[in-house]
Amino acid sequence: MAEPWGVIFDMDGVLVDSFQAHFESWQSLANEVGVVYSVEAFHRTFGRTGREIIHEEWGRTDWPLDHVDRLVHRKEVLYRELVEREFPAMDGAAELIENLAAAGCRIAIGSSGPRENVELAIDRLAVGTHLAAWVTGHDVTRGKPDPEVFLKAAERMTLSPDRCIVIEDSPPGIEAARRAEMACVGVISTGHTPADAAGATLAVRSLRELNPENLSSLLTARR
């Protein structure tokens, strides 16, 4: 019997082409509270938790946590209002998950986003039956580049990290995969450049470049 292996998908920028919707929702929230938030600042923090963005990028460590959490909740409501109008699925995402499942691969989602966002993506992509696990921002205390989210996903799939491949788009996410000692595919999606995927084991411009054979070969190459 072949040794089990798994793929952990980040959500934003990998399964969902959400860069613009997230930026617009963060910018709307920033305008509401009188904070200037540029696209450059947004790019730096993509993949981080909402608390981390407000505390570290906005510099508002003086705001009480309950106030910060209300703002983060407000931002995610704004985001879901945008994507529910026209869901921006990444090209080839559902097909890749289906092909991996057919090949016996265990599949998880590892995202710093809220559970509601992840559940929305799973529903719209219609891939729930193929998932062995998912980890959201509600399940972790540290955002990427900390590897907590990917290590939890591997644990829930009952796989060791060296049997997992992460598919990511952001430098913090790729760094988190590296710290988890997992192979990583960097997707050069909206808002990113090839330099952002420099730390990945393999860089691609489309999920359609991936299949069970070339993904599983990344594990073989690491031995």
Can you describe this structure?
A six-stranded parallel sheet has the order 3-2-1-4-5-6, sandwiched between helices. 45% of the residues lie in helices and 11% in strands. It starts with 5 loop residues before the first strand and ends with a helix. Helix 1 crosses helix 4 and helix 3 crosses helix 4. The chain is of the alpha/beta class and 223 residues long.
Key descriptive features of the protein:
single chain, 223 residues, alpha/beta, six-stranded parallel sheet, 45% helix, globular
Distance between the termini: 19 Å
N-to-C series of helices and strands: EHHHHHEHEHEHEEH
Work out the radius of gyration.
17 Å
* Integer average pLDDT: 93
Strand content bin: 5-15%
Helix count, per DSSP?
9
Order of strands, main sheet, comes to 3-2-1-4-5-6
The largest sheet, given as strand count, sense and whether it forms a barrel, is:
6 strands, parallel
Structural class: alpha/beta
Shape: globular
Give unreliable regions as ranges. none
Share in helix: 40-55%
By DSSP, the count of extended strands is 6
What does this entry show, briefly?
The protein has 223 residues and is an alpha/beta fold. It has helices at residues 19-33, 39-45, 50-57, 65-85, 93-102, 115-125, 148-156, 171-179, 212-222; strands at residues 6-9, 106-110, 133-135, 164-168, 183-187, 202-204. Helices cover 45% and strands 11% of the residues.
Structural topology:
Elements (H helix, E strand, L loop, with lengths): L5 E4 L9 H15 L5 H7 L4 H8 L7 H21 L7 H10 L3 E5 L4 H11 L7 E3 L12 H9 L7 E5 L2 H9 L3 E5 L14 E3 L7 H11 L1
Parallel strand pairs: 1-2, 1-4, 2-3, 4-5, 5-6
